[in-house]
Amino acid sequence: MLASTFPRRSTTGKTVSKLVIATRESRLALWQAEHVKALLEQRGHEVSLLGMTTKGDQILDRSLSKVGGKGLFVKELETALEQGQADLAVHSLKDVPMDLPEGFALACVMEREDPRDAFVSPRYACVDDLPQGAIVGTSSLRRVVLLQSLRPDLRIEPLRGNLDTRLRKLDEGNYDGIVLAAAGLKRLGLGPRIRQVFEPEQMLPAAGQGALGIEVRAGRQDVIDALAPLAHQTTWLAVAAERAVSRAMGGSCSMPLAAYATVAGEYLQLRAAWGDPDGKVPLVRAQSAAAIADLDSAARLGTGVAAQLRAGGAR
Ligand SMILES: NCc1[nH]cc(CCC(=O)O)c1CC(=O)O
Fold first, then answer.
1. Is 95 a catalytic residue?
2. Which pTM value belongs to this model?
3. For residue 209, how far is its CA from the centre of ligand 1 (angstroms)?
4. pLDDT digits (tens, 9 = 90+) for 11-21
5. Do 117-197 and 8-110+208-231 fall under one CATH topology?
6. What is the reported pLDDT for 192?
7. Fold of domain 8-110+208-231
8. Is the ipTM here above 0.90?
9. Which atom of ligand 1 is nearest to 92's Cα?
10. Is the model's pLDDT at 200 over the cut of 50?
11. Three-state SS string across 240-288, please?
12. Which atom of ligand 1 is least distant from the CA of 32?
């Protein structure tokens, strides 16, 4: 398939184009790609999807942190962009590495869904109701260390796979409860399965959680222009601060790191936490705020908070 974008003038005088979205084929990835497709179509673009399977989708038995991390979900999509089979790739921003490979750019960050984590259980209404030593499923090191600080008695067991797989493993009786991103559940209409959403004070979200990012080949100004109306500036500022914490900490998903920013009035407030997977160092927390200026100042806020985490003992 040849690349797709030959901008032309629509009757309204706006440039419209044919755009191909590269997407993973999990139900959540397809929902997200369809969501972007619908928004672009509303603006007069002609949009189709190119579904692909990534390495990350094929590895279900091991923790991702052990097999190579976030890049596993984006590499094949980037190859499609590089070879001109697709013009844009829609990602859960949480899964996008801090530094994109040479030649690629984050063209757009969209409005955030619920950024919080959610507790799902057939029997228990919340984590506090779990009996001593109950089994909770998650493979996220961040969720492991934050759960341990809430409830040191819990037995935390690995849980991998896409959302449907994880819920199935819960329903098969392997766990007393599991922790997932609220955003994914809500997008797939699975919100009713949520028993408890954790407030950020209890379980601080991961950098970028709940936000969608759109990746393009650097220099594809036509595509970047088409995506500009989909951007959400306050979300973009918040995730720039969060991702700067991860970057400064050398972040990958093998790091038990949380970073969450909110916009309050004219200020960007950023909180972060780092936990020791071996349980030897107590949880380290840091926070800071700055007047909202631009993406660079948001990133500086993140770098400062990362320095605080390290000063507090985070590695
Ligand atoms: N790491 C997998 C992943 N990537 C994005 C989401 C959920 C939605 C989001 O954060 O946008 C999930 C599932 C989860 O963490 O439970």
1. yes
2. 0.91
3. 7
4. 454 566 899 99
5. yes
6. 97
7. D-Maltodextrin-Binding Protein; domain 2 (3.40.190)
8. yes
9. 11
10. yes
11. HHHHHHHHHCCCCCCCCEEEEEEEECCEEEEEEEECCCCCCCCCEEEEE
12. 11
